[in-house]
Design brief:
The complex is a heterodimer. Chain A has 14 helices and no strands. By secondary structure, chain A is mostly helical. The mean pLDDT of chain A is 87. Chain B is globular. Chain B is α/β, with parallel strands linked by helices. Classes of the chains: A mainly alpha, B alpha/beta.
Chain lengths: 316, 334
């Protein structure tokens, strides 16, 4: 078990390393000079060259990469060329916003998705299942931006129930945070709820027809236990995989949702930075996002073991 | 023969599956009974409805597409079909009064729970005992079915065991709550031949030792002759012949039973004697015409058979317990 975790952590580090190398190279291969962008079109060549030297842009890419990594190990992500502030500070301002919306969205998705999926499966073909099927199909079909704009129109402008945009930190004013978070969280969660619902339903229906479920029933196990214990634990394995693939989308911040609700989270930061060639911000964001992704996958791998004894066996 | 008390009496049971192709009358007016401490065999080809009959007794048929349309299932005098499919009453019967052992030991145990978890859960559902006591009873049940190191085996997952071992676990679960009737649905079909014999011997010694009754559902006539007291032969959702094992083996009266017996190898037969298969395939039981369902495959069928409606079960001789559903008198044809 411990050996497995150590091995898995090692692989995670390698993956993060590869991701940063790729993103670092791509940014530097693309046309556009960060120093020129920082100083503006009118700045003279000498000043640009001086800045290039200061930013180490005149050195080979490999050296630049090594210098960047060295800085990170000392907690220094470099300076933003546009905002002229430390990247670490900018990210630490933006990341909590994304996370404080992403975590509730994830919790909402998993709980609602599983619950409605189980209900759909138990009531297969009945009225409730048909309603849920229509809802999930609609949810999958609706683009996030449309849902966001529609929400703003209906609940914000027409009904005046919710604020139409912006973000308040939960520590500053919790009620205001909740009011402002409701729509973005729902927008972030809705696709995942629908996907989890569909997967849970399909897998559960398959498992319910398995011989061992019949055995459980034949032995007088109560129906609730048959579904929630004997069937669900088996049905969850593919659902966990599916959730794992989606977690980054929710936790890592959606550019669209942040744009629509004017939330200055990490998704929007990354989008702006790409436009500005603010390469150290891009690097920092990519590093953070890949760490979130790899971290989630790590947790999911451990969850597999909790659910499936055969996987636990292979860890030994 | 002295009359024993009937433990299970099934009367006019009808179970159908409603498919897009039409109604499949899997169990079509089937009646049978099992006495206390009796071993009864239900024999027939795949798809003849023998398993569905047993599933219907405990209302384990998937609904939809299946549905129990009618009949009565008296167990110790109570009609089990009066209880709802998910009712407390039927659950109290399942696993505690009537236990089932299924055909596929490889898939009949839940892959994500240990043997001990599954075994002690069944015990705890039916008996008011603590976790610890249930676990101890589980170990005891495993010991009874001859599993070595039962304490250690309790912590195993099904995938860590062989098919034979898993079937022993299924038997352990079946006897853990002291059921009076064990329904074994092709208990040895999925096992290799040497394991088959072991498992069957084990099952019989437990049934005899604990004075239980058993229904063995099988297509293996060899198995039946060794272990069963009485036999019911099923074809296309109906019982077409019934009687004591001895009677049916010696004087089979239905052409189908005769065919089945001819297709079984016998050690006392002379060397080189060919086995005789039953020609054709069992019918798909959708929209069967009202006549003997075996007619198209029957080597003895006459013009009258084709035109007459479905024969009912009748005693071979007046007052006998040997019943057959055939227009013809096959006495002495074997």
């Amino acid at each position: 078990m411990l050996g497995y975790i150590v091995k898995r952590l090692g692989i995670s580090l390698i993956i993060i390393f590869i991701v940063t190398v790729f993103s670092f190279s791509i940014i530097h291969i693309l046309p556009g000079d960060p120093a020129r962008i920082a100083l503006g079109e009118e700045a003279d060549q000498a000043a640009v060259d001086a800045l290039r030297a200061e930013m180490n842009l005149d050195k080979p890419i490999t050296t630049q990469y090594v210098l960047w990594i060295k800085g990170i190990l000392h907690g220094d992500f470099g300076m933003s060329i546009v905002e002229h502030r430390p990247v670490s500070r900018i990210i630490s301002e933006r990341l909590p916003k994304t996370i404080s919306l992403g975590v509730p969205a994830l919790i909402l998705s998993v709980s609602l998705g599983l619950l409605s999926g189980i209900i759909s499966a138990i009531k297969r073909g009945k009225f409730v299942d048909q309603i849920l099927t229509i809802c999930t199909t609609l949810a999958v079909g609706m683009p996030e931006f449309w849902l966001g704009v529609f929400g703003i129109f209906l609940f914000g402008l027409k009904l005046h129930l919710l604020p139409i945009q912006g973000y308040t930190a939960p520590s500053a004013d919790f009620t205001q945070f909740v009011r402002r978070a409701i729509m973005p969280v729902v927008c972030l969660a809705i696709h995942l709820i629908a996907s989890i619902n569909r997967h849970t339903r399909a897998n559960l229906l398959e498992v319910i027809n398995q011989d061992y479920v019949r055995t459980a029933r034949a032995n007088g196990i109560p129906e609730r236990t048959v579904i929630l214990q004997h069937s669900l634990k088996n049905a969850l394995i593919p659902v966990i995989t599916m959730i794992a693939l989606q977690v980054r989308v929710v936790l890592g911040g959606s550019v669209i949702v942040e744009q629509v609700f004017n939330i200055t989270g990490i998704g929007l930061l990354l989008k702006t930075a790409v436009g500005n060639r603010d390469y150290l911000i891009i690097q920092g964001c990519v590093l953070i996002l890949s760490m979130i992704t790899v971290g989630c996958n790590f947790v999911v791998d451990l969850l597999y073991g909790v659910v499936d004894p055969k996987i636990r066996e292979s860890w030994r | 023969m002295q009359d024993k008390t009937p433990l299970l009496v099934v009367k006019n049971l009808r179970t159908s599956f409603f498919t897009s192709a039409g109604e499949v009358k899997a169990v079509n007016d089937v009646s049978y009974h099992v006495d206390e401490e009796e071993v009864v065999a239900i024999v027939g080809e795949s798809g003849c409805g023998k398993s569905v009959t047993q599933m219907s007794v405990l209302q384990l048929v998937q609904t939809p597409p299946g549905k129990i349309l009618g009949g009565e299932v008296f167990y110790k005098g109570k009609d089990l079909l009066k209880y709802g499919q998910k009712s407390k009453e039927i659950r109290a019967i399942r696993g505690a009064e009537i236990s089932m052992i299924f055909q596929e030991p490889m898939t009949s145990l839940n892959p994500v729970f240990t043997i001990g978890q599954q075994l002690s859960q069944v015990i705890r559902v039916h008996k008011h005992v603590s976790r610890k006591e249930a676990w101890a009873e589980g170990v005891e049940a495993l010991r009874k079915v001859g599993i070595p190191e039962p304490e250690a085996r309790m912590k195993n997952y099904p995938f860590e065991m062989s098919g034979g071992m898993r079937q022993r676990v299924m038997i352990a679960i079946a006897i853990a709550c002291n059921s009076s009737l064990i329904i074994a649905d092709e208990p040895t079909t999925a096992l290799d031949v040497t394991t088959q014999a072991q498992v069957m011997e084990l099952l019989m010694s437990i049934v005899k030792g604990l004075k239980k009754a058993m229904i063995v559902v099988t297509h293996n006539l060899g198995l039946v002759t060794r272990y069963a007291d009485r036999i019911y032969v099923m074809y296309a959702g109906k019982i077409i012949e019934s009687g004591t094992t001895e009677e049916i083996m010696k004087h089979p009266m239905h052409p189908y039973t005769i065919g089945l017996l001819k297709s079984v190898p016998n050690l006392s037969d002379e060397k080189g004697k060919a086995l005789v298969p039953i020609e054709g395939a069992p019918p798909i039981v959708i929209n069967l015409p009202d006549r003997c369902a075996f007619c198209p495959r029957c080597p003895y069928a006459t013009e009258d058979c084709m035109n007459a409606s479905m024969p009912g079960l009748r005693p071979v001789d007046v007052g006998q317990k040997h019943l057959v559903a055939c227009h013809l008198d096959m006495r002495g044809s074997r």
